[in-house]
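Supplementary notes for students who missed Thursday's class. We covered one full example, reproduced here. Read the sequence, then the structure, then the short commentary at the end.
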Amino acid sequence: MAGVLGLLFAIGFAILALSQLLPQPAGIEQSRLWLVSGVALLIGVTLVLTAGRVGRWTIHFALMAATVLITLSVYYGGDTGTMYSFYYVWVSSFAFFFLGRRGGLFEVLIIAIVYGALLVFSEQALTVARWLLTISTIMIAGAMIDTFAARIRGQADRSAAQARALAAAGGVARQLARSTDSAPPAGLICDAVAEALGSSGASFWQPSEDGTQMIAIGATHASLIGHRQPLGGPPSGVVSCFTDKRVIFSPNVADDSRLDTTLRTEFGQASALFQPILDHEVAIAVLVVEWNRPIDELDADTTAAIGLIADETAISIQRSALLRRLEDSAHTDSLTGLLNRRGWAVSLSRELARARRLHSPPCVAMLDLDHFKRLNDEVGHYAGDLVLKQTSARWASCTRDGDILARYGGDEFVLALPDCEIDDAMRQLDRLQKCMQPDGSTSAGVVLWNGDENGFDLVERADRALYAAKREGRARIIAA
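Structure (token representation):
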């Protein structure tokens, strides 16, 4: 604004100076008009040089200074000086365009007072007519400029809103794309949505495994995480959004009977939007966006942004499910459904870390099916695979909650027994042996973790105990 206003001062100086070089009628005080033009030039240069570093109040003072200089030009120009009154149009046009309607009306009021006082003081003819013509002209010009500026500002606001909406959706998409977790990044989604849309909070809901409840698995309000709403229970925006697969917007949460009472009273929501997350027209989750200030209606750009975010979230959930399946596949033995060697290594590492922290050493056993090679040679690998499946199922049903059973390779299995002494481990392995009867037998070696060795050394020690059991005749358990 300062730069543009400074340029107007400079142009005004140039026109005023040029007019003094042309033939002038008598009665014009040229020396004082030169002084006025010099002051205008000084103010204009100062504004241009300080553009970007002055406050809004400086602009108002500069406009009032322009009004005074124009009025002095009219006065020193005598009767012919009324031509300078058209400079008032510049002042009002600038004020309406840059300062808005209030700023423009304020400057017109200043012009009306100053110019009216001049006409009364100078006792010029047709005073009222001149004043009315001048003020009505600048008012009409100002109204036109105000309308034009309002349209420009409206278009700019709409463009900015669209840009913010696209930036919001793009920001959430980038956040989700950077997530490598195999679980849906619910907390990440909520934080990104709240930041991108400028809302006071967000929450992410998914159905429970048994399909009877909706559970908040992520939220910007930590106390909301884990909150449950039964499907088919009391009125709930989350449940209605999920079951009906439609967007629900509540401008006044406190008086909306469709919403959950606890959420209305506990978290201070004023307005809320419930957005379904769909995967091929099937609802898989609900995203809730909350505002702590009343919002009568959402603009189209915000609604579009939330829709885009919902689509990105659905893609993220699909991606998370795929990563989870890939992770399960990478850690699971395809034949028995137990952990494979890679899954065993990860699980054992976690168990040793837990045991080290809690000072409760586990036992680890290595098991081997007796005479399994002979079985494969006599009846074939298909029958051998069937035995491995049956054995895995039996052993899985006999282990305790928390025990880690894995197929190590071929007919070898490994078993981690957390919080277990050697004697208890021997009894547990004996139960596994009995699960094999009468269809076969197994040999096993079991060791107690010494608190220092790594997973590889621990399994190696259990493997040596297993081979000792085989050397002693099989169908036995050796502790080392």
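Commentary. The two ends are 87 Å apart (CA to CA). The first helix runs from residue 2 to 21. If anything here is unclear, bring it to office hours.
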